[in-house]
Design brief:
It holds the Pfam family OCD_Mu_crystall. One of its GO terms (cellular component) is cytoplasm. This is Ornithine cyclodeaminase. The structure is a single chain. The chain is an alpha/beta fold and 333 residues long. The protein has two domains: 5-113 and 308-331, ornithine cyclodeaminase, domain 1, CATH 3.30.1780.10; 115-305, NAD(P)-binding Rossmann-like Domain (Rossmann fold). Helix content is 32%, strand content 24%. It is built from ten helices and 15 strands. An eight-stranded parallel sheet has the order 9-8-7-10-11-14-12-13. Helix 2 (21-36) packs across helix 10 (307-324) and helix 4 (144-156) packs parallel to helix 5. The chain is globular. The protein starts with a strand and ends with a strand. The model has no long low-confidence stretch (mean pLDDT 93).
Length: 333
């Protein structure tokens, strides 16, 4: 047997590769279109709860063909108390394999990938489901994915206001300071959910709750807005789906099953089902289903995270890393 080598990118490598906003959005939009055309395989995520702390692991699995020819598995921890130890709440590893032989191809630090691809899916969802002239963005939560939500949404929309809120003042202040530095514009920090959300055209709910709690009130949602909730624990009221013109998800297979998710209670109560689900985002990106069709629509996009996004972004990083001579080659067999 010939030697088998795998490509390895650690966190420093990922930072040095420095995919720009356009590269990130292009990789994710292409993967969503492939999913919409049925050119991918995706399995619902599974969870591992060690039982020794307030946290769990998510295991995401999928495969793509065509421009990105790879199968992948990502394992990402979701440990909400890690800030007390000076650690990110989400740390992840992505493994890529040859889908024809099972031969390992690469291993990447996927913590940054998780943040980038989540922000890209949020932004692409808004591209297709929000009003084109959206002027006010409200963002709840300041975790790692939050930065990329706001950064990539700002690339696609000319906001007059960007408001942010999170539970801990030190967290929301640091988040706003980073955004102001990188985006070159003022960020409004709010002390409560309502002042952040009211009258916003796009509302992103990325809170970090330890248990479900209806902190985002349906009455605060402006008609014509887009709401994007994706917290592990639900922070929305059951009535939220009642005011929506279109409900879109990233993958119905993993949204309708499982233990966690922002609209888990809505699925279990029958408020979100095959009957009133408008589409998966990939179907809209591929041109098979409609996105926003009028200014009057009030829409909702729920995404739980796609292994396909991780695979696509990991592939893009490897390709750019090879061009730049960044990364390591490890002997596997």
């Amino acid at each position: 047997m010939d030697p088998i080598y795998i490509d390895y990118l650690n966190r420093l490598d990922v930072e040095a590769i420095a995919l720009d906003d356009g590269e990130i959005l292009a990789a994710i939009e292409s993967s969503l279109a492939a999913q919409g055309r049925g050119e991918t395989v995706i399995e619902p995520r599974v969870h591992l709860q060690p039982g020794v702390s307030e946290g769990h692991f998510n295991v995401l699995r999928g495969a793509m063909a065509g421009q990105v020819d790879a199968a992948g598995v990502k394992v990402v921890g979701d440990f909400v108390g890690n800030y007390r130890l000076g650690l990110p709440s989400e740390l992840a590893i992505l493994m890529l394999f040859d889908p024809a032989t099972g031969v390992p191809r690469a291993m990447l630090d996927a913590s940054g990938i998780t943040d980038m691809r989540t922000g890209a899916v949020t932004a692409i969802g808004a591209k297709h489901l929000a009003r084109r002239g959206s002027r006010i963005l409200a963002h709840i939560g300041a975790r790692g994915t939050a930065y990329w939500n706001v950064r990539l949404l700002s690339r696609l929309f000319d906001f007059d206001e960007i408001r942010v809120h999170s539970r801990r003042p030190e967290s929301r202040d640091a988040f706003a300071a980073r955004l102001e530095r990188d985006l070159g514009r003022p960020i409004i920090v709010t002390g409560d959910w309502e002042s952040c959300v009211r009258d916003a055209n796009i509302v992103v709910e990325a809170s970090r709750l330890s248990a479900p709690a209806p902190l985002l009130r349906t009455e605060w949602i402006k008609p014509g807005a887009l709401v994007i909730p994706y917290g592990t624990m639900s922070a929305v009221e059951l009535s939220l789906t009642d005011v929506m013109s279109k409900i879109v998800v990233d993958d119905w297979g993993q949204c309708r099953t499982g233990q966690f998710g922002a609209l888990r209670a809505h699925v279990e109560a029958g408020r979100l089902s095959d009957a009133n689900l408008h589409a998966e985002l990939g179907q809209i990106v591929a041109g098979l289903r409609s996105g926003r069709e009028s200014e009057a629509e009030t829409n909702l996009f729920w995404h739980r995270g796609l292994s396909l996004s991780d695979i696509a972004l990991g592939h893009a990083m490897l390709e750019k890393g090879r061009r730049l001579g960044i990364g390591q080659r490890l002997r596997f067999a």
